[in-house]
Design brief:
Length: 194
């Protein structure tokens, strides 16, 4: 059975469509109109091995709305692909270096949205994207995906590297968590539901 998901979000601010394949090869076909956001999406796809197709158009020219709605739509597509979350590993953890930076991420694909995002960014913007919008990207993605995720940059001296280490740590953690568990047929929870 293919584990794919789709989502769309159209508001007075943005128009976005996303589709994902959890059993992909890490192929990314993305276009948001912002090169750094595209870079984050490509890194997420490549290192999670989740195929991502995403088109985003800003209708009001406000970067914050584009970043937020892109993350929400991608999170919704991932949530759709996960379905009832049966037969998956559920948990994933990764520590990823990026030159001077080191990021750690732990993922629980339970349907209780909770997130801790500590990117330790210092500059007001990274590649023209405000720091608060980068942090908001992570928060919006994780909330819409309905997962419990902790991501923390332990150290680093370059904010681009900090951000990239964080997105790669999230990706590697997701790769593990969404993986089919050959020993499990049902929901990986003592409650019997996620």
């Amino acid at each position: 059975m293919e584990r794919t998901g789709e989502a769309g979000r159209t508001t007075g601010e943005t128009e976005i469509t996303a589709s994902v394949n959890l059993d992909g090869t890490g192929r990314a076909n993305v276009s948001t109109g912002n090169r750094f956001v595209d870079h984050m999406l490509v890194s997420l796809a490549r290192h999670s091995l989740i195929d991502v197709t995403l088109r985003a158009e800003s209708l009001d020219g406000i970067l914050h709305h584009l970043v937020e709605d892109t993350a929400i739509t991608l999170g919704m597509a991932l949530r759709d692909a996960l379905g009832e979350r049966t037969g998956i590993v559920r948990f994933g953890h990764a520590t990823v270096p990026m030159d001077d930076s080191l990021a750690e991420c732990s993922v629980d694909l339970v349907r209780r949205p909770f997130r801790v995002v500590c990117l330790s960014l210092e500059r007001p913007a990274v590649e023209g994207v405000p720091r608060e919008d980068i942090e908001h990207f992570f928060g919006s993605l994780l909330s819409a995906m309905e997962a419990c995720v902790h991501v923390r940059v332990a150290y680093g001296s370059n904010d681009h590297h900090r951000t990239e280490a964080a997105i790669k740590a999230l990706a590697v953690s997701l790769r593990a968590a969404v993986s089919p568990d050959p020993r499990r047929a049902g929901v990986p929870s003592t409650k019997g539901t996620m």
